[in-house]
Amino acid sequence: MVPVQFITHTAPGIDYEASAMLALDGGCQWIQLRMKQAADSEVEPIARRLLAACREHGATFIIDDRVELAKAIEADGVHLGQHDMPVQEAREFLGHGFIIGGTANTLDDVRRLHRASADYIGAGPFRFTTTKEGLAPVLGLEGYAQLVAGMEAEHIRLPLCAIGGITLADIPALLATGVKGVAVSGAVLRADNPADMMRRMLAADE
Question: pTM, whole model, 2 decimals?
Answer without folding.
Answer: 0.96
